[in-house]
Task: structure prediction
Amino acid sequence: MSPRKPKDPRRWMRLRLWIVGGFFVLAGAVLAGRAVDLQVVERGFLAAKAQREILREVEVAPNRGIIYDRNQVELALSLGTDSVYARPVAVRNPVREGRLLAGALGLPAGPVIKRLRGKRHFAWIQRRVDPDQAEAVKALGLDSVGLVSEPRRFYPYTSLASHVLGFAGLDAKGLEGLERRYDKVLTGQGRRVTRARDALGRTFWLAGQRLQGEPQGGNLILTIDRSLQYQVEKILAGAVKRWKATAGQAVVMVPATGEILAMASVPAFNPNVYQRYPRETYRNRVVTDFYEPGSTFKVFMAAAALDSGKVSMDQRFDCEDGAWKVGGRVIHDTHPHGKLTLSEIVKFSSNIGAAKVAQQVGPVQLYATLKAFGFGRPTGVDLPGEARGLLRPARSWRPVEMANIAFGQGVAVTPLQLTAAVAAVANNGVLMRPFVVKAMVDGSGRLVAETQPQVRGRVLGPTEARLLGEMMRRVTEPGGTGQSVKVPPFQVAGKTGTAQKLKPEGGYSHTDYMSSFVGYLPADDPQAAILVVIDRPRGRHYGGTVAGPAWAAIAKATLKTLGVHRPLSLPELRQVRGQEPAAPAAPVAPAAPGPDTVRALAQGKAPDLSGLTLRQVLALAGRAGLKVRASGWGRVAGQSPAPGAPLKDAEALEVRLAPPTGGA
Amino acid sequence: MTGTRAPAASQRVGDPWLLLAALTLAGVGLLMVYSAGSALAAKRYLDGAYFFKSQLLHVTAGVAAMAVLAFIDYRRLERLVYPLLLGVFALLVLVLIPGVGHEAGGAMRWLRIGGLSLQPAEMAKLALVVYLAYSLSRHSDQVKSLSRGLLPNLGITALLIMPVILEPDLGMSVILFALACIMLFVAGARVTYLLGLLALAAPLIWFMVAHFPWRFRRIVAFLDPWSDPGGAGFQIIHSFYALGSGGLWGAGLGAGKQKLFYLPEAHTDFILSVLGEELGLWGVLLVIGLFLLLIVRGVKISLEARELFGTYLAMGATLIIGLQAFINAGVVMGLLPTKGLTMPFISYGGSSLLTNFSCVGLLLSVAAGSRRKC
Result:
């Protein structure tokens, strides 16, 4: 072909082969250089960009804390509920998937299909769905649809203690009650965490990344006893219904400590669905509302008299047979009385007597005593929206006004103020701050803060307090206005109240009353101060008649809850009193089931289990073939059937546990 | 190699270094397929090891094919040239028939036979190389002729490329074209003719690119990936992210993040990015080094071949592996526009493994042949 013949064609071929090989070596060098460029030179820039895409800083909201009753029963808690979302960009057939999804959720198909259209990466379909609906959605197996857990506030006992607890809204913000007051504690600290996500938006964990649990808000342990609260609410609602009243309030307080065992207000609401109730039902009237206390206030008139030393116990006041003119106005008694001692004035609830005692004591002393008992100022209870009531200073009192104040008119008190004041009488004249939060515990159960009983002041000498208590005890004796209030075998110290309500246009109504009973028991060893107020009863209005039976029923339930079974004898009393200032957290020697316990079981009677641990109870019950239902934690503090009662076949043994050194 | 102590082993194996390079690459590939594909496999097949198991099967089959080819005399292929060419052509046409060919990602590239999935274009490379080696060695004196040397060979090449273009698989077409050009160059074709051919092909390729908007976008994305990071530049940018994140030492095997659905085709075309992220620069350099070793040994075998057919066959087999490896690496590193080509031995894919191991088998056979002569 070619005029020039190559000497060796293979040599040229070899050269060309080497050229090809050399080209590859060169290309390899270029590739290596580019790799160095990307992986070393540009590394910082590229890695940062990649990180920015993968890592997302997210705020992890803490789980809202739990509100427990005094026995660690959950009254308010947050549970994860599923919310359904879709990734419209990944939806292939919006109509088909939309129909399926709508079917599973029980929604109209149209809006769901609409949400599935478009190129968005995220769209809520339905938030906080029921567990069955979540299951149904899962069962569809749609790639483009997912579930995320969102916490929701639950109040397992629905309306129980609703006014105390209040509620938290959908965004987990406390709006009323303790939920509002302790919102910061319950919410806790959120945490900003950097999470890595894959391109489908799923979180994954980086090697070496510290796994942290969900942040947890603080928990509250209340002084409220769920079971007692339930009974109080039931009894109160029954009384309100029976008397066709518009409302009612009840408080149970431990006089020695100020702990609130129960606080109820009727009508109640269900915080799970608070939106369905009118706003005014949210109000905890026990602390936010005040009313003219009426005759219950005579207790404090008597306290002022005792404190002043100006009135002797046998001094008699002329009660003018039911009508007495003072300062241009006539005061009436419901029943005409002749000459009465201070004690009798309280027992028969004479307005005229009260006015005369007040005159003798004088406005300065009366005002000082009332102020000391906490009227006209907040009690400092740890609930939001507390009212201070109404107590004008003594200088502004005209004679008729002072007379009125002596029997509870022209002043206004909150139910809690009144309860706390009566509790001070029961507590040897020492006024305690009422409280509902016993302790704060962090997410992992460590105690953060414990509420110590707080003395607000001595309002009465011990002798005077005992004398006053004796006067109140006589109220429930035959002839007294509270004679129908009986909680055998215990003696009750109390005072009735029948206050006429103020008419909107001024003056007192003759049809609308506030009927109340306030008192404590057992009279000789006060364990509970209780108030029952019935607002606007129909038919009857006397405090003893309307509020009395409810009071007695609540008192009975309270004593049962507290485990007070019979009046203590004097030596026993001394023993109990002696133990009161027990060394804190002293380890309690584990009580062992004694021979009596075993013998009782053998006889088919309920043994006395108090002080035993749950494990011991279970061991015993196992031996006897009994079922055990336990509540709370700690050691046995209460049981049913009571010790000595016969055990019926197959009946479960109920025990209530309480921490050995805890509280009341 | 040079030692006289182990001639027996060398003779048996042909070229141990070549074998070592190929097996190491396949081993690295198995690891990387497992790592890069597990997230996708778990999502698609509910089995994170799905791709790994499949790849393991194909590596085994590939090694078997390699062994068979290594132990038979490559010269027997001369008699099989036309049946092979015809068979592959038939498959290439078959894949285009709707219903027979299996479509994926908008292209008909696969044949489903029983449970097996076959990519005829992979075999086309092998058939083309065998044919050209045969033709160029048979008519070595006519190579410089345009009408009797260049055009017939180009005709056969075009015959194989046409159906591949129709699939469409432009990347593979370019590989086939480049294979033919380089082999013609090595065989002694006039450089002026080849340059003229390139000048002729350029407008054709331009038409192929401009006619299909997605190819055009790929070119634009190649030139400036950051102009459309969410669209056309998405893949190459995430490849950069992977390589950049890997740095010198890498995040560690399995610890890559771009494979978590950020980087498309992480276990196939862009497996080198994942390798770079997990094994770092050293891993990438190792892979490039192994391919260079393979190429250099291939060129050496080609040079030492007993006769021209062996030389051209070895050259072609080396090119099949080397060209595609370096083009793929260039794509992954943003030096070449995205083609849709896999990384030999490393990317997931059965047909590709079979072809590449067959190439190694042929190279070993040629090497063994030349040793027998010595």
Q: What stands out?
A: Chain B has 13 helices and three strands. Chain B touches chain A through 51 residues (CB under 8 Å). The longest strand of chain B covers residues 107-113. The beta strands of chain B are 101-104, 107-113, 116-118.
